[in-house]
Amino acid sequence: MGRLLSLIIICYQVLSFSAIFCRAAASEGSDPAFAPVLEAVRLRAREIAVEEILIADVYNQAFSASGKEEKLNSAYARAIERFEAYLAHPEEVSTHSSEQLQQLREAGVLLILEVLREAYRKGYPEEIAMDVGGSRFRRLLEEGLGSQALSAAEFRPFADAEEYRSYLNRIAENAGGFLGMSFFGWFPDAAGKEFLQRLAAKKVGLNYDQLSSKYMEQGISLVELDLEEFKRILVAEGTGQSLADLRPYDQDRIREELAKLWQPIQISVLLEAKAHLFNSGKSKAWNWKLPSTLAFHSHFDDFGIELLYEGSPLRVARVPLPATDRRLPLPVPLPHRLVPLPFLPSLLGSQHAKYIFNDHGEVLVMGQSIADKYFQEESSPGGRLWRDGGWWLVGQAATPLQYFHAGAFNRALRVSRRFGNVPEHSELDPELRAREISANLSEREENLTVHFIVTQPRGPVSSSLRQFEALLFAAIAAAREEILIVTPFFSEGKIADALVRKKKARPELRITVILPGWSDQPLPAASAWCLRRRMLGAGIEVVQWKPDPEATPYAKDAMLHWKAFTVDGRLAYSGSGNMTRRSLRTDGEAGYLTQDLSVVAELNALIRKDIQNSRALEPPRRNPLVGLGCAVLEHGLGRVLPY
Fold this sequence. Notes:
Layout: H1 2-15, H2 17-30, H3 34-56, H4 65-87, H5 91-94, H6 98-122, H7 135-144, E1 149-152, E2 154-158, H8 161-174, E3 178-183, H9 190-203, H10 208-216, H11 227-239, H12 243-246, H13 251-260, E4 266-272, H14 290-297, H15 299-302, E5 306-310, E6 315-320, E7 327-332, H16 344-347, E8 355-358, E9 362-366, H17 372-375, E10 390-394, H18 399-419, H19 430-440, E11 448-456, E12 465-466, H20 467-478, E13 482-486, H21 493-505, E14 510-516, H22 522-537, E15 541-545, E16 564-567, E17 571-575, H23 581-586, E18 589-594, H24 597-612, E19 614-616, H25 624-640
Parallel strand pairs: 3-4, 4-5, 13-14, 14-15
Antiparallel strand pairs: 1-11, 2-10, 3-8, 6-7, 8-9, 9-10, 11-12, 11-18, 13-16, 15-19, 16-17, 17-18
Helix pairs in contact: 1-4, 2-6, 3-4, 3-6, 3-7, 4-6, 11-13, 18-19, 20-21, 21-22, 22-25
């Protein structure tokens, strides 16, 4: 039925095209002032259509043609409604005669239909008449993507391990009322233990750096201590007792004494469930690390830190142990019925967003998690320092991140309660936390504008938010001079196709894609190898990050894990989103973008630094067997497996 309705509408509009065009042309000839108005109306009609294409996701239904047509009709209805509202208000339109208004209406409706029909057949538009740094593109972000323009007092990119450590510790130390954070992984290595100790010290009102210096003078490194012994130190410092006085206390008594010292600050942590199954976070090798990692995570409760796991199909909940009041985080079955195999990627979605923020509006949104590989000092000889980065932000733009975090945390809390007892964890109140952020920022002058961009495949407000996908394709369609992309994982063929089509439509456009020289994920790396052949063949520059150990702090086979892109030197994004189907559609992702030229220039400079440390790749020779293998990888495995 939907297909028939679409066909009837299309045929009707196509048949009436000539009459509409002739009437418009006649009117232009009789009234010179009408021509620019008609052109402006057509431009606005096209903008509305493109916005509805991006938010309705008309053409990207992988498994359901009928769903695609329903979205087409829905996008058409919303576009027409918005176009009619536009015609009802602008003064330059309302001053014309009723006949001219009818001609404007018909011309706009026809153009909307043509744009939607083109999207139905081809996918995202190759060109949209917008400057990515201009007000019309900002309107697309706000009206089309639903991403409100937000203010910030500080907003700058970073791509350095020491900067990451510094910002991370600063946010933790400056927190007064609450700390919220989400990481893909938090591993029991030196970096993981140190940051947990820092949060634990914060929870009992101690300064970790001062505490560490005090014990270092006695020859004791806090990071090297067993966490049970560290609990004793916190109790000793908080109560004024000596460690000798606490020696008779067993572990249960120490936990009780520690709980009495907790300050009212709330620390809520979200971790991806599946990330801790195999990957130790230390090396190339994948090892079975679940027991040691979950044992490490079990200490969070003792420190008063609210830890929850998110991600499916594996759920991890805190399950009570028999004959004891202790609870361990253990894997539990997915509380959903089995579904057909083609929908497996949506089930395997992850909480991939990485961020931390406090009640003073200080934010890190980045690609890093908590593990040694993200924190190694630059002077470490031969260390596997990962190249990664994100945004440092201070301002009201922290508020939507709080809503995003509260939604994910509360969903994970409800799942945990279904399988285990989590009495001390309460649902986060995003309104209350947002008011605290606003109150603490009331004296700050904020003159930078940014947009919060997410992929949220599930949530209480709407079934999904795919702002990252819409932003990416809209930015490609609007590019005029240059696109720079740095990504560790590139496995989505639709992104490569969009870049190739854009390059063919605008040969003078410079497109550079930076990929890692080594990857810890073999399947996405194989897909990236195939897609880079396609892009190189179209004249797109693809380079591999290959740092020089003598000129940079990175080992020869270090991992590039940074996710960012800039367009025309006028728009910049960085966050957790990769160029993969998962980041576009099934994983929880978070990032920020800006149109501020000075900030974009900073991010551009960092990306160009990586280009200088990269090796250019040559266009490949045609090989039918390689092409067949890549087709199987993209259209076979790529439709079923979550990468």
